[in-house]
Amino acid sequence: EVQLVESGGGLVRPGGSLRLSCVASGFTFSTSDMNWVRQAPGKGLEGVAFISNGGKYTSYADSAKGRFPISRDNAKSTMYLQMNNLKPEDTAVYYCKKGNNRGQGIQVTVSS
């Protein structure tokens, strides 16, 4: 059974930083491409960042470029999203995603 468990969210002031983690189990993490997606209040699911199975290739939504580097540690079956210079419009529930599977999500709130 695929399990994805996010952590690292919380309340942060504009301009602040957070690092999200996603611990994966139940599948071969090192051969799986992974994504971070988010859902803001009242909106649909939005892709944030993608990383290939070996970490060589990444891509980002325009809103995340230059601010949210994605990374992974295959030895730990863990993916990360470093979120810098956070803005109120980044407020959302963030999910890690593998194919059609995603975790339970973690709340990120950016507010002064």
Describe the structure.
The chain is mainly beta and 112 residues long. The protein contains no helices and 11 strands. Strands 2, 4, 5, 6, 9, 10 and 11 form a 7-stranded mixed β-sheet that branches. It is globular and about 40 Å long.
Span from first to last CA?
40 Å
The class by helix and strand makeup works out as: mainly beta
Helical proportion?
A: under 10%
Q: Based on CA inertia axes, which overall geometry fits?
A: globular
Largest sheet geometry: 7 strands, mixed
**Average pLDDT reading:** 97
Please give the radius of gyration in angstroms. 13 Å
Give the SSE string: EEEEEEEEEEE
Low-confidence stretches: none
Number of helices: 0
Q: Could you give the count of β-strands?
A: 11
Oligomer: single chain
How much of the sequence is in beta strands?
over 45%
Secondary structure blueprint with pairings:
Elements: E1 3-7, E2 10-12, E3 18-25, E4 34-39, E5 45-51, E6 58-60, E7 70-73, E8 78-83, E9 92-98, E10 101-102, E11 106-110
Parallel strand pairs: 2-11
Antiparallel strand pairs: 1-3, 3-8, 4-5, 4-9, 5-6, 7-8, 9-10, 9-11
Quick summary of this structure?
By secondary structure, this protein is an all-beta fold. The protein contains no helices and eleven strands. Strands 2, 4, 5, 6, 9, 10 and 11 form a seven-stranded mixed β-sheet that branches.
